[in-house]
Amino acid sequence: MTHRECPHCHQTLPREHALPDVYLTPGQRSIYERVRKAGAQGVPRNVLFDFLYDKDPNGGPLSERHCLYVRVNHLNRKIRKAGLEISANRPGNLGEVGNYVLRVIR
Fold first, then answer.
1. How many Å separate Cα 38 from the centre of its chain?
2. Distance linking the first and last C-alpha atoms of the chain
3. What SS3 state is found at 11?
4. Dihedral sign for Cα atoms in the order 22, 20, 104, 11
5. What confidence tens digit (pLDDT) does each residue in 3-48 have?
6. Short-list 43, 31, 33, 52, CA closest to 88
C-alpha cells in the first residue's frame, strides 16, 4: 500500500481511498469521506449531523449526540482494520465534543 504524509499533522496516511478489505455502507462512506476531506480542521458535530440528515423529511433523530456517537463507533470498528480512526477533539475545558477528525492509529 502506498503511503503519504498529512500536510496538516505530518502523520503517515494511507492512500486516499485505501481501505483494503473494508466494506462501508453508503452512510459510513459519507461520514468517512466528509471527515477525511476536512483534514486536520475536522468536521463539527452539528455540521456532520446536518450533512447526514439534510434530506430526511423528519429532520433526523432527536438525539444528535447519541446518533453520531453510534454511527462513528460502527464506522471505527471497520476502519481500524486499515489503521484509521475517527475521533473527536475536545475544545478548551468545556468538555464538549468538538470536531470529528480522521487519525492514524498504530
1. 9
2. 16
3. coil
4. negative
5. 555 545 555 555 554 566 788 888 899 999 999 999 888 898 888 8
6. 43
* Helical ranges in the chain per DSSP H: 26-38, 45-53, 64-79
Number of domains in the chain: 1
Contacts of 104 (CB under 8 A, 6+ apart): 6, 11, 12, 13, 14, 83, 84
The boundaries of the domain holding residue 99 are 15-104
Amino acid identity for residue 56 in this structure: D
Q: Record the cell numbers describing residue 52, joined without a space.
A: 447526514
Q: What is the arithmetic mean of pLDDT over 73-93?
A: 84
Instruction: Specify the CATH number for the domain of residue 19.
Output: 1.10.10.10
Q: In the predicted model, is pLDDT for residue 60 greater than 70? A: yes
- Other CB atoms within a 10 A radius of the CB of residue 79 amount to 19
Chain centroid to CA 88: 9
